[in-house]
Amino acid sequence: MLEYALCNELLAGEGKPLAEQARIAAELGYVGLELAPATLGSEPHRLGAAEVAGIRATVEDAGLRVTGLHWLLSGYPDVAITDPGTRDRAQDILLGLVDLCADLGGAVLVHGSPRQRRRPEGMDDAALTDWLAAFFAPVARAAEARGVTYCIEPLSRAEDDTVNTVAQGAALVRAVGSPAFRTMIDMSAAGQTEPSVADLIRDWVPTELIGHVHANDTNRGAPGMGDDPLADIVRALLAVGWDRPVGVEPFRCLIDASVTAATGIATLKACERACA
Q1: What are the beta bridge partners of residue 246?
Q2: 3-state DSSP call for residue 217?
Q3: In sequence order, which residues have a C-beta less than 8 Å from that of residue 191 and are 6 or more positions away?
Q4: What pTM value is reported for the model?
């Protein structure tokens, strides 16, 4: 059986406090919340120990766990990892978020944040890989020291011009050279860029370069809000023995965030039953 964690930003965007987010996720059958740091405060990388402990307790009191963090830089629109002028600040923020994830009991950080990773004009692929590898090396060392996995997320070409395919993510993983730095598969982005997602799972998970999976539809809704071949994707996850929580990450709602979250996990569990 697969485990599912709910990405929390749609519920937070409706003004629901963390305790209510956790209650809803627990009632729907999720094992945890995957938190967007911007939902926790204006400078989440600087949260104090008491605040972090309170966040963790709120989630755990609902019978869940914090599985990780994603959308790491969405709350910091003035920084970019590819801008020499803000590079150091971006690195400091991410180092703080590595500590936050570990202190919350999370296991994985997902680095998407497309607006904060635009390719500098005129930079070719080799130079870009060198830049990103140098940027992420200390972040990877910090992740390894804290026992968490940091994942670079391949995004669709409509969003990003740095890392678009799992192969590009894997090339950066190899350049960084840390066991705590991995890439991941986002079903929506991968489905738009390099289908089939099921084949990507079968081909790449055995390489041990994949640290996380996000479940969503290519139409950016929750699983079940589109026409993606979810049964084949779930079958592939089961076949490769995926044993970490799958993050359900819709970007838009069906009716509201609660219905969207319910649709996502119900669809995925139905696919599991069909594969049995």
Answers
A1: 4
A2: coil
A3: 197, 217, 218, 228
A4: 0.98
